[in-house]
Amino acid sequence: MALFRWSDRPDVFRPFEELEREMTRLQNEMSRLFGGVVGSRPFLGGVGVFPPLNVSEDADNIFVRAELPGVSPNEIDIMVEGNTLALRGERKLPEAEKEVSYHRRERDAGRFSRSLTLPTRIEADKVEASFKNGVLTIRLPKAAEARPKQIAVKVAA
């Protein structure tokens, strides 16, 4: 049996330490690379998409709710073309903020656009939109052929 002095013993953890250093370096590089695009928010999980949307429906309508804090309703364009809803707009910085230096800036400004495919046909000429407390709500009435229909059962005589 060979005897080794403690200092001559092979370091079995060295490859893992090097791997950990490399992973940390890679993580720092990714944070630096994407930090300018999405700020300090997590990159995964759909965060960073603006505006965030909720889409729901009842028997007669589809509802799209978009969080648009700091956006004037006059700066929002809503288009329905076929089965696609498009939202476009701009969130502007207040005039007073243009002359300041930021220590931290997590709220973005600038133009945005989102489009989504609607789950069913709608009546485009009856679409309504309202804006309250920074939330845009769009009501899209379903087309008559897309609404659920009650079928009466006829009883044979």
Report on the structure:
With 157 residues, the protein is α+β, with helices and mostly antiparallel strands. It has a domain at 53-93 and 109-146: Immunoglobulin-like, CATH 2.60.40. The chain is built from 1 helix and 7 strands, in the order H-E-E-E-E-E-E-E. It has one helix spanning 14-38, and strands at residues 53-57, 61-67, 76-81, 84-91, 110-117, 128-132, 135-141. The strands form 2 sheets. A 4-stranded antiparallel β-sheet has the order 1-2-7-6, with no helix packed on it. Strand 1 (53-57) and strand 2 form a beta hairpin. It is flat. Mean pLDDT is 83; it is low at 36-47. This is Hsp20/alpha crystallin family protein. Residues 44-157 form the SHSP domain. Belongs to the small heat shock protein (HSP20) family. InterPro entries: A-crystallin/Hsp20_dom, HSP20-like_chaperone, Small_HSP. It holds the Pfam family HSP20.
Any descriptors?
157 residues; alpha+beta; Immunoglobulin-like; 4-stranded antiparallel beta sheet; 3-stranded antiparallel beta sheet; 29% strand; flat; HSP20-like_chaperone; Hsp20/alpha crystallin family protein; Small_HSP; A-crystallin/Hsp20_dom
